[in-house]
Structure formats: C-alpha cells, structure tokens
Amino acid sequence: MLENNNAKEFVTDQYVIYPSHGVGKIIDIETQEISGTTLELYVIFFSHEKMTLRVPVSKSKTAGIRKLSSLDSLKDSFTILRGNAKVKRTMWSRRAQEYETKIYSGNILLIAEVVRDLYKDAKLIEQSYSERQLYEAALELMAREVSIAHDISEKEAVMNIEIELTKGLKSKAAKDLAADAAQL
What we know:
elongated; disordered N terminus; five-stranded antiparallel beta sheet; 184 residues; Methane Monooxygenase Hydroxylase, Chain G, domain 1; Thrombin, subunit H; alpha+beta
C-alpha cells in the first residue's frame, strides 16, 4: 500500500526550517516500507547538530517544516529587532515558557521578538543564565536562517542582527532623552 501524496512541497538540495532544529537541507527524498506501508520521506540534514532526520512527506506540514523566510519577512524581522523590548511583568518561569514556544514555533517574526526582548547590552545589564540560554537559542536560529538567505556566514548574520538591536537601543535612548528634556 503506497501513501497517497502526489505533491511534494520540497525538493532535494532545498533548505528548510524545522521548528525545533532550525535550518536543515533536504538531501534526499526516499521511499521506505514501514509496517507494511510504503512511505515517502524527506531526509533532512542539520549540519550544526550533525543530525539526519527523516520526515514523512505527508506529515511535513504538521511537523511544521517550512521554506526559508522570504527576504521581505527577514526585513520585517529586522524591523522587529529595532523596536522596543516588550517584557511582561509575569513570573520568569511563565515568560521563559512563552519565549520557548516562540523560539520553537519556527516563525522568524516570533523568534525576532524573543531576540529583541532578551537582548541586553553586555556593558550595561547582566542576564541570568536562563535568559542568556534562551537569547542564544533564538539568536542562533535567526542567524542560521539569515546567513542562508543572504549567503553570508553565521558570524556576519549575528553581527547584522546585533547592529539592528543596538539601533533599537540607541533609538530608545534618544526618545527617552527627548522625553526627559520635554519634562524640563
């Protein structure tokens, strides 16, 4: 019995996003028989984890696999980075859970929100260990996607992201200074 799925959304050598692992490359589309059912599988290689994952073609949508973000979406994510951090005044455990949900959603705009909200200027503010871990996870996922989309190194992608974050901080500092001056 062959699984009925004529339309494959992805092709070999295409980069895709898998929500919990980030950027991977489809290295093959293979057919395997499992429990008497023949399945077509995407074989996805994640170079950073040196891991290969096989996902049934028919389950790729429910697994959250998606194409790389468009350049417009990446541009929107950089706009988010320049915005003001939106930190809720709830318990850290609740916020951490919300951040993790956003990070592992695979949505570049939600990941950018986490990067923005957890970014701290290292010279000014210290982060807790768990804040730093979440920030780095979000930054890494975003940087991998930016690096592939713009054909630059991950290091350059991180630098570009951090430049946008500091623009946001400078803009906020200028607004705060203007507000203070207006009160005088």
